[in-house]
Amino acid sequence: MRLRLYHAPDGARVASREAGTGPGLVLLHSALLSHRELEPAVEHLVHRYRVVLPDLPLHGDSEDRPRHPYTLDWFAEVLAGFCTEVAGPRPLVGGHGLGAEILLRAVEADRLHPARLVLMPNRLHRPSERGAMTTAWRVPARAGAVPGLDRALPRVARVAFRPSVGEGLSVRSDPAARDLFRHAFADVDANPNLARSWARFARRWSPAPRRSLLDAYPRMRFPVLLLWADEDRLHPVQGAEEALDLLPEGQLRILSRAGFLIAYDDPVGVGRELVAFCG
């Protein structure tokens, strides 16, 4: 895959990989991981699309300096600019987890006008499921702003998110998920700037339900695919069903025997549904 760099107007760097030819299809990964989270589906897409996989800011090779606000609105502004730059004014876009939340905020704020939008499992308008488990990272992350701890916490993160965690998040126990986590946390202990930036993000990220989306869904007058996993305990299908009732052009597709790492559990299914939806 070819490496590309995009620089936002405020200087924030977004690194991305791309492969294939045809219309641009931008896919955003979830929190704590990298572009590699969605790589397994790429081989099933490159015959139809130029697939673009960015690393979100704070992840992979993208922006990590603590001078940025790292609010959801900031992420939405940066990624909306990126999507438009690499895939045109009406891009094909999709996201999982945090990536999906960023896209939803960009659409809600009228910064992004996709031709088609794919939402893989995320919390949508609901509070985070298993709240303590999904938000516990905020406490140690906020400590990264304390001098000295900014060097110690990245080493703790590598232990907490060791490669075996990745395999455990795969319903099918795909051993390749170990490499996903190994890559995502490979260099964190050598980058105290990253710890300070995550501290800023943790202070500004809210686990509260985004009820404003309930008003935004009816205004999304373009095709939206809710591509869900039937065994993702963090993102139950109930939220997708509620959103489906409010989306003017929504579709819901559920992949069987797939969990949080949806592209690892069923890369063929993810590729098939994206091709069928995006055309």
Notes on the protein architecture:
Strand 7, helix 10 and strand 8 form a beta-alpha-beta unit. An eight-stranded mixed beta sheet has the order 1-2-4-3-5-6-7-8, sandwiched between helices. The chain is globular, with a radius of gyration of 17 Å. Helix 5 packs across helix 8. The mean pLDDT is 89. With 279 residues, the chain is an alpha/beta fold.
- Overall average residue pLDDT: 89
Distance between the termini: 23 Å
Instruction: List the total number of helices.
Output: 12
Structural class: alpha/beta
> What is the overall silhouette?
globular
Helix/strand order, N-terminal first: EEEEHEHEHHHHHHHEHEHH
State Rg. Answer: 17 Å
Helix content: 25-40%
Number of strands: 8
Neighbour order of strands in the largest sheet: 1-2-4-3-5-6-7-8
Strand content: 15-25%
Poorly predicted ranges: none
Describe the sheet with the most strands: 8 strands, mixed
Produce the secondary structure layout.
Blueprint: E1 2-7, E2 13-19, E3 24-28, E4 50-54, H1 72-87, E5 92-95, H2 98-108, E6 116-119, H3 131-135, H4 138-142, H5 149-160, H6 163-168, H7 176-184, H8 192-204, H9 212-216, E7 224-229, H10 237-244, E8 250-255, H11 262-265, H12 267-278
Parallel strand pairs: 3-4, 3-5, 5-6, 6-7, 7-8
Antiparallel strand pairs: 1-2, 2-4
Offer a concise description of the structure:
With 279 residues, the protein is of the alpha/beta class.
Task: Name its key features.
279 residues, alpha/beta, eight-stranded mixed β-sheet, 38% helix, 15% strand
